[in-house]
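so my prof wants the structure for this chain in the tokens format not the other one, which i didnt know existed until like an hour ago. anyway here's the sequence
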Amino acid sequence: MEMKTAVAALSALAHQGRLSAFRMLVQAGREGIPAGEIARHLDVPANTLSANLNILANAGLIENRREGRSIIYTARYGDMAELLEYLMQDCCGGSPEICASLAEVVLRSHCDVTGTA
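here's what i got, hopefully its the right format
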């Protein structure tokens, strides 16, 4: 991952509404969530949610698909993993105990590589 890509992703996540929507999509798994359900759950107007989802999509963190009249949003788990890997690249400076707690967090997430719990 390039630094420019990482900065775009982190910038997109640096907003309470976008971070909440992204976390919701990560938790939803590969099924994703319809836009209307996201708006209701987060209690945000449709136009605000649409703008936030566009920013996340442009940063490569989410994608969408149409199912009938609904637009279903899903997290892009591969890109999320690349961002996390970029952030932890060369972590610890040769002292693995520094990052041991981060490894424990990953193990506790109960998420496999396909993005399902």
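also thought this was worth mentioning. The CA atoms of residues 54 and 91 lie 31 Å apart.
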